[in-house]
Amino acid sequence: MPEIDYPLPTVHLNGTGRETLHNDYSRAQDTVEAAIQAVAEIEFNARDYYVQTDPDAYNKARAKRTEMLDKLREVDAYLLAHLYAIE
Is the pLDDT assigned to residue 87 strictly greater than 90? Predict the structure, then answer.
C-alpha cells in the first residue's frame, strides 16, 4: 500500500455508519477494478497505428494507455485505503 498523505474517515457515533461507508467504498472499488480489467483487455496492437504519419504513434498511444491504467490503479489504491481504514 502506498504512503497515505490524506485523511481517511473515522467511524464514530455522529458520522456515517461503518456498514454504509464500507458498502459505498466497496461498490466503487469493485467498479474501478472492473474498469482496470476492461481497459487492460482492449485489443491493443501496433498494426492499428502504423498507417499514421507519426512513426512513433504506437509508442505514444501505448504510453498514454499505461498512464491511464496507472491512474485507475491509483484510484483503486485510494478506495482500498478507505476500506482498510474503516474495517
Answer: no
What DSSP designation does 6 have? S
Q: Kindly tell me the burial class for residue 82, based on how many C-beta atoms sit within 10 Å of its own C-beta (0-12, 13-18, 19 or more).
A: buried
- Using one digit for the tens of pLDDT, what is the confidence trace for 38-62? 999 999 999 999 999 999 999 999 9
Q: What percent of the chain has pLDDT over 90?
A: 95
Consecutive H or E run containing 70: helix 57-86
Confirm if 55 and 46 have CB atoms less than 8 A apart. no
85: its cell numbers: 481504514
Q: Each residue of 10-26: b (16+ CB within 10 Å) or e?
A: eeeeeeeeeeebeeebe
